[in-house]
Amino acid sequence: MRILIVEDDNLFAEILQSFVEEKNCACVVVNSLEKARLQLKNAAFQFVLLDNHLPDGNGLHFIQVIKEISLVPVPVMMVTADDNQNVMARAFSKGADEYIIKPVSLDLLWQKIQRVHELYAKEAKLEEQAKSLERLLDKQEQEEQLARYVYEHVSSNLITETECVDTYLQSSSSFNGDVFICDTAPNGNRFVILADATGHGLSAAISILPLVTTLKAMIRKGLSLAHMVHEANKKLCIELPDDKFVTLIGVEVNFHSKTLQLFNGGMPDVIALNKQHQITRHASTSLALGIMEPEDFDPGILSLDTHELQNLFFFSDGLIEQQNLFGEAFGMQRVLDIIKDWDTSSPLLNLVVNYFTIFNEIGELQDDLSICDLQVSALMEKHMFADRYVKNKKSGKVTAALTIEGGIIADSDLVGAFDGLMQSIDVVGDLRQKAFTVFAELISNALDHGVLNLDSSLKDDFAGFAAYIEMKEERLFNLKENDKLDMVFSYEPRTNEIGFSIKDSGKGYDISAASGMDDGALSGRGMALINKLCERVEVQAPGNYASVSLKREI
Fold first, then answer.
1. Residue 145 lies inside a defined structural domain of this protein
2. Residues of the chain with pLDDT > 70: what percent?
3. Conformational region of residue 7, where left means phi above 0, alpha means psi within -120 to 50, and beta covers everything else
4. Could you tell me if 251 and 290 lie in one domain?
5. The domain containing residue 70 runs over which residues?
6. Can you tell me the distance from the alpha carbon of 215 to that of 64, in angstroms, rounded to the nearest whole number?
7. Do 371 and 319 meet the contact criterion of CB atoms below 8 Å apart?
8. Other CB atoms closer than 10 Å to residue 186's CB: what's the count?
9. Do both 211 and 327 map to the same domain?
C-alpha cells in the first residue's frame, strides 16, 4: 500500500512513517497542503493520513480537493488533536472515511487503515465488475441488434403473396420464434407455411432461420410440399440440438388439379370450414420436424379437394395456451365457437384477434402468437378468372435446343433454365406455370429413371423416399461422360403454344409407371397431371423420349 502522510509535526510524522513502513507500506511525507496537492497530481496513493492544522490551511477543507485531484479513488483519514464532535461531523460530511484523535494508538490506527482500505478494495472490485457487466451488456446489445437486423431482413421477404391470406403475428419478446411463408412456386402452386420453433425469443428465432432459407429455396425450385417437408426434417435433424425442434403447418394449393396438400407436424388442429359452414378438424399427423431420422419420418400429408373448402384456419399454440389474469386458457373450444358464430360479414382473422385481445386484457404473451386464415374459395375463384382475357399478338417463333452431358448434369437447374427462358420471352403467366410443372416432371423422370436408373417404387413409402434421395445423390456424384439429356423447347406467341421434347441416354423405362402417382404421393405430380395440362403427349419406345405440347386456354 502507498500512503501519503500530510503532517507538519516532524517528530510525529517520523513516527507514523516508521510504523507504516514496518507494515511493508511505501510512504511519502509532506508538511503542507500545497506539497500534498503536487504529490496527488503526480502519483497515485492508496491512503492519505491528513492533519487538520497545517501552515497553509485546514486539512478539513482539503478533503474534497484530495477526492477531486487524486489519480485513483483514495480513502482519507483525519489524524488530529481536535476532539470536537462538530469538527468530526464536518470532516465526515466533507468526505473523510475515518477520524482518529491524537495521541494515537498505532495499533488502532493500523486496524482502521486496513478496514477502510479493504472497503475501498471491495468497492473498486464491485465497480470493475459493474463496468465489465456494462461492457458485456453493451456487446450483447450490439449482437442482438445484428441478430435482429438479420432476422428482420430474412422475415421481411417471407410473405410475398397476400392475396386471400390473412396473417397475424405477435411476439412475446424481442425476437419471434414463429414465421409465416406465403409464396408462389414457378409452377403456380401457392404455398402457405407456418413454423413455430421450440421456446421463444432469440434462441427460437435462430432455430427457425435455417429452415426458412431452405423452404424458400425449395419453393423457388418448384418442389412439392412432401419433398420440402422431408428435406426440412432432414436438415433440422442435422443442424439442431436434440432438445430443439420445429412444429409446422404447410399448405400447397394446386390450381391445376384443384387440390390442396396439407401437412400438420406437431401443431394444433387445422380447422377447415366448408361452404355449408361445417367444421372439420385436421389433427397433427406427424411429429415436429427435427425429431425423427429421415428414414423413420412419415409426414402423413393429406390431400383435400378445394371445391367445397371455404376457409382453412390455423395457428400456433400461443393462441390456445395463452392464459388470462385468472389463469384461464383461451382454448381450442373458444376458437371453434368463434368460427361457428362467424357470419362472414367481417374478416374471420379480425374477429378471432378481437376476441383474444378482450380475453387477454393487458396480460403479457406467454408465447409467440401466430394466426392464419387462408380463404381457399376466394383464392380459387380469383385464380380461375385471372388473366383469362390477356391476348398476345406477337409474331414469330422461339426454338431452343439444349444438350447437357456428364457430371455437370448434377449441378444444373434445367427446369430453372427453361423457366428463365420463358420469362425472358414474356410467356404469359398461367401458360408458363403449366409449362414449368410439365418440364419439371419430364426432366425429373428422364434424369431419375432414365439416366440414373432409379426405381420409382422406392417412393411408395417415406422410409423408401429417404433411401431414394440418398441413392440419387450417390448416382449423381458418379455420373459418366456418356450420360446425356437432349431437350428442345419451342414457343409460338401468336397461338400461345409451347412444345417440349426430352431424350435421355438411359436404357428406357415405363414413363407412365414411373409417374403414375396419385395426388397424395410424395412427388406430388404424375403422368395424369401431364395429360391434363398438355394438348398432346407422345412417348416413344423404349421410353427414353417424350414430347408434349401445351396451349393456353383463352
1. no
2. 87
3. beta
4. yes
5. 2-124
6. 67
7. yes
8. 23
9. yes
